[in-house]
Design brief:
Blueprint lengths: L1 H27 L6 H24 L4 H21 L9 H13 L6 H5 L10 H11 L36 H12 L3
Helix pairs in contact: 1-2, 1-3, 2-3, 4-6, 6-7
Length: 188
Amino acid sequence: MRTNRRNLLYASIALLPTICMFQILIELFPYTGLGRIVALPLVFILNAALIISIIHLIRKFSPLCCALILVPTILLSIWNTILFYPQEFSPSIPKQIKYSISAIQHYDDLTLADWEGYTYSPSRSGASERYVVALYKYKHRVPLDGTAYFYNDTDYHKDHPIRSLNGTPSELEPHHQLIWWLLKTYEK
């Protein structure tokens, strides 16, 4: 009985990263449509089954071996959470992360056209991430008189013209706010 409680405690602790990752993904990538209603419980069940199976298999091993096996299992459960998190119109989360990293890495290569020439659309090519980095790079050239709009979109963002770029603009999509914050923090 004591072993079962200990295994249940280990499984509960091992599932905490999954729950934390759910919270992070919900905050940064909120546009999931109805897919979140189905995907989150299924991902939780998948990760719970994975972790419980591994804990059951390694219960007789030494603590060091258990840790060496359990850590990659927890990392795999985090990867499952990221991989299976749904997006309604945007590309998958790993692709959006790849596009964001690429846009930041190519900061010096971005031109004024990446900001001015962007038209709002759910991008499957990383254009929105490049737009945000270019907007940050050329923020001193942005007219703050209300004639420019976030994402150069006068339909959806018509009530939010660009009037200030001092802080992190709340009109940006959440993961774009993270890109802006990273650029500001590391003083690109």
